[in-house]
Amino acid sequence: STRNCPCRMNQITPKSPLGSPLSEHIHSRVDSLDHLSMDSFWLEVESIKQSTEAEQEECSLADVKTQEEGDAEAEWLQDAGLSDLLGDRASENDNIVLLSTLTKTQAAAVQRRLDTYSRSRRRKNKHPVRDVRDIFGVVDSGVRDGGGERGLQTRSVVAQSTDCKCAETLFFSLLSVAETQDYSCPVRNPGKEEVFNTDIAYSEQAAVLLKGSFLSESRRIKDGNALTKFKIPKGRLGVTRIGDLSAQDMKKIPTLALIELTALCDVLGFELKRNKAVKLKTTEKRLFGVPLNTLLENDQKLLPNTKVPLLLQALLSCLEKRGLETEGILRVSGSQTRIKSLEQKLESDFYTGLFRWDEVHQNDISGLLKRFIRELPAPLLTAEYLPAFAAVQNIPDLKQRLQALNLLILILPEPNRNTLKALLEFLSKVVARENNNKMNLWNVSTVMAPNLFMHKGLPNKIPEGKEKQLAEGAADVVRMMIHYQDLLWTVSSFLVAQVRKLNESSSKRYQFCDKRIKNLLRKIHADKDKVEKKQAEPSKIVKVHASLLLKDSLEVHLNNATRVADVLKQFQKNLCQNGWNIVNTVSLLKCNNSVESTNLLLYEVGGNIGEHCLDPDAYLLDLYHINPHAEWIIKQNPSYPRMF
């Protein structure tokens, strides 16, 4: 039956209708997930409805005007850092630095959107714009433009290829939300750990996969604990987590991630749609219904390093202390009357320290937690990208779903990303106590999905009768974010490499000599090969500084086996044995006066990177080769937890 709720999830429409032969094939290759109850989801929806019945005027959905052709592409180019390509007097040189870092599939994604924008401008008889080929030439990425009236209409990567790949084409690009859903995780090697490659751009991996053999049949899993395990191979340069890069370099990541996500969707045959931000009424409240940025600005006046709203920290801390063992925590609703009263008390007493947390029932606190998330003026996953998060469910392959989620999380504004991580870490702790609280991974996911995917400020685009499929899909996306959060909070190696290239190229101005990006990329790669040939040194002596801890520096002999952890241990040994002049010993020395090396971190600073906290398993000679002008600085591990 159709569920009536005051606010509903958004959905991205697939590019093409699904052919019935393939539909039968997909239905036959998997089992159903009917055994996974959605009762918790609909109970949560009803609870939300009851809590907002008195506020229906505030919950009315905003009208969003349909964008004219070319407008979405113009917004995309602006967000991708390529706005200079839009104007009649666009300066190519201002964008070459970014364009020079793009892969083949990324360049094709940019070209298609600029092509669509150019066509729309010509149809509107506006001032002429440059032909896209003046900038890019013709790039054969294997991804074809759909043509027709809209450049973002559905076309398969191999739809214009040979007939023998027709089934493969449909499998990736013609999945219909209305007829086929893949809500569980495909398990190609049940019980076996799979490699999650971050060295090569995800869109390039997908393009290669499509050119290969048809994916093996996947089955539905029936146990959350049987989810496929993925491992990121560290390689010689180690793994970079969110928080390891400087703020300056992290500002470059969302732009690169947006281009890569768009390229991945193009290869897979999905349309990446984004909502326009919806303006809601401002509130005079101090806590609930206040934008994350405003909350953090106020909180940072009290605690300068605050990354997550203090109220959310307090709610999560209280639940961790007294609610993790409570049966049905999160699922069992507290009293709506008490929750509303508690909200008013928090508004007046939270910052004064007078609020008595020990007097509040755990279920009421969980209700406050969900209300805080739900009442944010914009969704925690952002109004712009909430449809994209919802659309992840339509990607058949689990690894590619996680790739898309990883990119979406990197695109999120920092306050949203940090707040989401704090929430997911708490939800993982709830799942870890399921023997006591009876809340397994699926239960938690179905309860939290409505609070993350339903928002009063977004339009209702759900086709009639499709609520169940979309609800299951949203719950599965939440399940993936909880279970794979460590993997999702990784900055892929190929993105770090692109940041390095951006920093290097900022002082180099490559010219489009023949106006073809294909040849530009060839020149960039040729220059890189020349540099790499000069970097075949088998060893190197470098100085490692620790100015905040010592007046002396450490001279380190690097070879192919020298890891970051080895340097930190050497530093620890010399610090203890040689009587170096210690500048600052606060929380650095253990009770026995020895230095704990885990309290120390090694940073790569300068050169082609702003600041990079290094993985202990990274090999320093390899890092030196890709960034010979960097300094190596040992710092004390920050007192506040690093965001992973």
Automatic annotation (TrEMBL):
Residues 1-21 are annotated as: Disordered. One of its GO terms (cellular component) is cytoplasm. Transmembrane segments: none annotated. GO terms for molecular function: GTPase activator activity. Residues 290-489 form the Rho-GAP domain. InterPro entries: RHG40/28/18_ubiquitin, Rho_GTPase_activation_prot, RhoGAP_dom. Residues 1-14 have a biased composition (Polar residues). GO terms for biological process: regulation of actin filament polymerization; regulation of small GTPase mediated signal transduction; signal transduction. Pfam families: RhoGAP, Ubiquitin_RHG40_C. Keywords: GTPase activation. PANTHER family: RHO GTPASE ACTIVATING PROTEIN 18,19-RELATED, RHO GTPASE-ACTIVATING PROTEIN 40. GTPase activator for the Rho-type GTPases by converting them to an inactive GDP-bound state. This is Rho GTPase-activating protein 40.
